[in-house]
Amino acid sequence: MTTEGAPTRSLRVLRERAPLKTWRDQARAAISSMSALEAALELTPSEREGTAAAIAAGLPLSITPYYAGLIDPKDPEDPIRRQCVPRAEELSESDGDLRDPLGEEAYSPAPNLVQRYPDRALLLVTDRCSVYCRFCTRARMVGRDGGARSEERLRPAIEYLRAHPEVREVILSGGDPLVMSTPRLARILSLVKSVGHIELMRLGTRAPVVLPMRITPSLCRTLRQFAPLWVMTHFNHPRELTAQAKAACERLVDHGIPVMNQSVLLRGINDDAATLEALFRGLVRARVRPYYLLQADVMRGTAHLRTPLQRGLDVMAALQGRLTGIALPKFIVDTPGGHGKVVLTPDAIVRREGGKTWLRTWRGAEVAYPDPQKTPQNSGE
Ligand code: SF4
Question: String of b and e for 276-308 (b: at least 16 CB within 10 Å)?
Fold first, then answer.
């Protein structure tokens, strides 16, 4: 296993092979064909079959040389590799799998806009990503719906926002908004900000993880102009916390942009307490707040990456008390069909009796918390 910040041998090879210092260089050199993938890794039969199918019809393939360089090429179960290299299992459908697991199409009041809660909405500004994750909730549209949205295409969504003052927050998502040029992104941010009642913007991106050179000082200065703006990123494994990735997060924070992380719980990749403890501690050291640990959505063809709900509860129970609250995210399941998020917690209440509630602590002890004694002042008599 690679230690934080220590590049693997293949990363060094990739860096030496071509000058890929800028994010544009990385995007141009992204692995997006079977031959490029085979040149970087020795593929298993399942990976070859999954890759051929993905390229032919499904979620497209793209892996930045930077991210590919984090893979241990000798390990088919490498946690970085499993996030970005297709497998044959993607071709099978399981009971309960959905094409649009969060019901986003049903909750879309205007093109490129999703509103599932009264006070916030998601603006889909592009369908492109620098790396396509094999567990992506929006696999139905990423990489194949026309690229970055023009201001013209976003106009109905902006008009909807203007007409709905109850919406106070807009989350820019996609795809990954940071595959767009900075001036283009700034124009979209200005458009959203021009809606007077929008108080807060968030920007969802995996760039700090898969393309950290995208987080340039110039981008940070641009984003700073739109404060309050929060960056939501998506690290899933401590091996992703390289020196470059951590520096990207710190650059954002140094420019006054808070960074929060949403991890997805993925079978065989990060579904154990030790891996997640290392990830959450590493994020806090990089000044990133672990915000959510998300149960994987029931996206079609991703059953091989999903865990039973109990797995997440067990992991959270193991981390409770072991990790500072700052490093402990909420465990969330986004319910299938777009019915919204539910926070899952290990059962803390053991019983209620005799004016006391018995709670189970992280050490397993049962401790009573007394209800307030009834007095004329608080009993309503
Ligand atoms: S970066 Fe986000 S939108 Fe893009 S493929 Fe990964 S999970 Fe999907």
Answer: bbbbbbbbbebebebbbbbbbbbbbbbbbbbbe
Give the count of alpha carbons within 13 A of 381, CB side only.
4
224 classed as catalytic? no
Contact 319, 277 (CB under 8 A): yes
Q: Shortest CA distance to 270 belongs to which of 216, 219, 329?
A: 329
Predicted pLDDT of residue 145 = 77
- The preferred substitution site among 83, 142, 202, 265 for testing ligand 1, maximizing ligand atoms within 8 Å of CB, is 142
For residue 1, what pLDDT is reported? 37
Q: Where are the domains of the chain?
A: 9-91, 113-344, 348-381
Could you tell me which CATH number the domain at 113-344 has? 3.20.20.70
pLDDT, tens digit (0-9, with 9 covering 90-100), for 225-279:
999 999 999 999 999 999 999 999 999 999 999 999 999 999 999 999 999 999 9
129 is catalytic: yes
- DSSP β-bridge partners for residue 98: 299
Residue-wise pLDDT for 206-240, tens only, equals 999 999 999 999 999 999 999 999 999 999 999 99
Contact 23, 29 (CB under 8 A): no
Tens digits of residue pLDDT in 46-90? 999 999 998 887 678 999 999 999 999 989 999 999 999 999 999
How far, in Å, is the centroid of ligand 1 from the Cα of 199?
26
Concatenated DSSP letters of 238-300: GGG--HHHHHHHHHHHHTT--EEEEEEE-TTTT-SHHHHHHHHHHHHHTT-EEEEEEEPP-BT
Ligand 1: residue of 83, 129, 211 to mutate (most ligand atoms within 8 A of CB) is: 129
**For 200, phi and psi rounded to 5 degrees?**
-150, 140
Q: Among the options 66, 214, 297, 300, which is catalytic? A: 297
Q: How far is the CA of 132 from the centre of ligand 1 (A)?
A: 6
- Mind listing the pLDDT tens digit for each residue in 169-198? 999 999 999 999 999 999 999 999 999 999
